[in-house]
Amino acid sequence: MAADPENTLILTLDTGPVVIDLRPDLAPGHVERIKELAREGFYDGVVFHRVIPGFMAQGGDPTGTGRGGSDKPDLKAEFSKEPHLRGVCSMARTNDPHSANSQFFICFDDATFLDNQYTVWGVVSQGMENVDALPKGEPPRTPGKIVTARVASDV
């Protein structure tokens, strides 16, 4: 278990468990939103609708189309100098930098061209092989999904 259970997210994917160390030091508003949605069960059963080998796996849209989000207000950007490296978790958004809501992505490989343009809110500390195992595609023929998302302190 991570050092700070209140800032640890446990995703149970259909490919296996993934532990994410949350980074409130980088993005306090985004971390609060991720925890709020996880505690509401929002992510449970949601698919990874865009999984690009060598780049990233994107999920967090309850419609599974990449066009949806939660009913909560969009977040103000919290860009940082934290690089988008393998295992980094960051928020997806539209062309508007302040449009992140519930969708996020996990980097398969380094994607530093995204630095300072997307909000980094966490990093995978365990189970990256289970992210790697997600079915690929845009969308995948049979998308992988989040079975449950829980804050470790609640488990």
TrEMBL record:
GO biological process: protein folding
Entry superkingdom: Bacteria
Catalytic activity: [protein]-peptidylproline (omega=180) = [protein]-peptidylproline (omega=0)
Domain PPIase cyclophilin-type: 16-155
Entry keyword annotation includes Lyase: no
Organism expressing this protein natively: Phenylobacterium montanum
Name of the molecule in the record: Peptidyl-prolyl cis-trans isomerase
Similarity comment text for this entry: Belongs to the cyclophilin-type PPIase family.
Gene Ontology molecular functions: peptidyl-prolyl cis-trans isomerase activity
EC number(s) given by UniProt: 5.2.1.8
Function description: PPIases accelerate the folding of proteins. It catalyzes the cis-trans isomerization of proline imidic peptide bonds in oligopeptides.
Presence of keyword Isomerase: yes
SUPFAM superfamilies in the record: Cyclophilin-like
Keywords: Isomerase, Rotamase
Residue ranges of the TM segments: none
InterPro entries reported for this sequence: Cyclophilin-like_dom_sf, Cyclophilin-type_PPIase, Cyclophilin-type_PPIase_CS, Cyclophilin-type_PPIase_dom, Cyclophilin_A-like
